[in-house]
Amino acid sequence: MxxxxxxxxxxxxxxxxxxxxxxxxAWPGAAAADRDxxxxxxxxSSAADAPAAAPAADSGGTAAQANGDVIVHLFQWRWxxxxxxxxxxxxxxxxxxxxxxxxxxxxxxxxxxxxxWQDYQPVSYSVDNTRRGTRADFADMVARCRDxxxxxxxxxxxxxxxxxxxxxxxxxxAGSTYAKYDYPAVPYGDGDFGDCRRDVADWxxxxxxxxxxLLALSDLDTGSAHVRGAIADYLNDLVGLxxxxxxxxxxxxxxxxxxAAIYARLDEVPGYGGRPYVFQEVxxxxxxxxxxxxxxxxxxxxxxxxxxxxxGAQIRDGRxxxxxxxxRTGMAVESDQAVVFVDNHDTQRSAPSISYQAMGQRxxxxxxxxxxxxxxxxxxxxxxRFDSSDQGPPTTxxxxxxxxxxxxxxxxxxxxxxxxxxxxxxxxxxxxxxxxDAPVVERAEDGAARIAFDRGERxxxxxxAGGSAxxxxxxTGLPDGRYCDVANGTIGPDGSCDSAGYAVSEGxxxxxxxxxxxVALHVDALCAEGAPCAEDGGPxxxxxxxxxxxxxxxxxxxxxxxxxxxxSVPALGSWDPQRGVRLATDEDTYPxxxxxxDLPEGTAFEYKLVKVAPDGAVEWExxxxxxxxxxxxxxxxxxxxxxxxx
Length: 646
Fold this sequence. Notes:
Layout: H1 14-23, E1 71-74, H2 79-90, E2 97-100, E3 129-130, E4 133-134, H3 135-147, E5 151-157, E6 160-163, H4 206-211, E7 217-219, H5 225-240, E8 245-249, H6 256-263, E9 277-280, E10 301-303, H7 305-316, H8 323-329, E11 338-340, H9 347-350, H10 356-359, H11 361-372, E12 377-382, E13 395-397, E14 407-408, H12 428-435, E15 440-445, E16 450-455, E17 459-464, E18 470-475, E19 481-484, E20 497-505, E21 508-513, E22 517-522, E23 533-536, E24 546-554, E25 562-567, E26 581-582, E27 592-600, E28 604-612, E29 618-620, E30 626-629, E31 638-644
Parallel strand pairs: 1-2, 1-12, 2-5, 5-8, 8-9, 9-10, 10-11, 11-12, 20-23, 24-31
Antiparallel strand pairs: 3-4, 6-7, 13-14, 15-16, 16-17, 17-22, 18-21, 19-20, 20-21, 24-27, 25-26, 25-28, 28-29, 28-30
Helix pairs in contact: 2-3, 5-6
């Protein structure tokens, strides 16, 4: 659950066609009957035992055929753009599911310039109209993605409705009127909310965490039969459209017994043969188990944010050699109960860790490693460029007669506004699908920044956080043959591979891993006879094609500020602070900030340090421009630049 800086947040089978057609008519109101006495069957806690999250046999031939378990979060994408991406990219490259942004009617905050977090403030449970599209658009997306082998997981906001700052700012995106504690379109009234109408003060006290308000958001009384019925009807409306799973936003703030009662009401997903897959946002922290990840694993999977905070920091700092031990011993729950990611929409805006906007290719490396390591269900982040932490997605502006406000622009991965980070991973999800739960066999390590390992006899992967290419000859359990490098290319329908092919012979393989990059080979991606790989992998030139400029500076900041390197070359933003290289710190290294950028060897440039506040305000350091050149890299093609804030 986003805890925003202000007051907000937070071929289709005949079976599916028939159900979706009926569901398109209207969203249901709250159920009148109280079904809380029904037993609550356990929602799936892993893809392995989850019919709704994996293909299921069906005698009528209507079962959906899907890819594996890898999830991609297409943050704030329009429904029609998600559908197109499923067909063109996600299905062919092995993604099993897409997490989409909340589809319910949301507040429209024009005075706040339509921040991303307005979508986490529900006005009603109608999916008729949001800034990402209509109900018909949503249903079409679900069906098209399903045809491509990709499931839709919805980000479900069930803990709360709108916040204090949203009073008087209606109507909502579908035209509904509302006020805090009064939502006639659901309907909810004052009695459907908790009695503690203030923010959480003690984050270790379950009564406060689960009974008081999160950043002034109206906290639903999820112990109420009426509220449980309304939430279950909303989720079942989505299930009727073919939604196969839910990320439960802010689950930590809802008592586990309340969620169990809601989950017990969920219908089976048409064509999948089981109830929806559930994974829950339960941030780790202080207090008893009832408000920590282990307290929710009996209901479904949980997001293990230790992966982000610990493994993400190791990847950011180039300490790849520590990652496998951390996922063995340092996580919050068992592997088959966890969903993991390097970053998400919250952390990339607020945490001093790793994101594509801050670190570029290192982030790509981190997401690739997440798909290769053995812990949890991996989730890939894909997002857009932002200049302030609140900034909403790229927009086409408002539309006459449409109450949704600034409408989200179609995704253009060739432009500058959308990052589309998942595309840089190529066919890497097929590696995760191919290796399954095969064990890790460590094969090579070259310092802290370079590792290689097998996943049983099904896959081999090598990762390089250094500034120069790494050529290694390693033992491997892969059978003899020539393999497509899925970290750097895709596999066509004819079996062709548009990346280098690497030969395994008598239990050995020689690969060349690019700087801040990966090589990944698996048994389901052999270079096909008659449809060969693009080229043979081979050793690189001895010269450094690019040098990693590694910045380490000391700067005192106030909470929320970050430090960036801005300079005279495009890689440093061409003097635009919003496009500069973001540096990172943490509680152990502050006030030292670090970051990297790759530059062609010999590049001369000028630069300065800037501090950027959450609202985008920029503070430049004093004095003349700093002059530098990447002309003396070390053996790893890395050159250090250090300094103090002036």
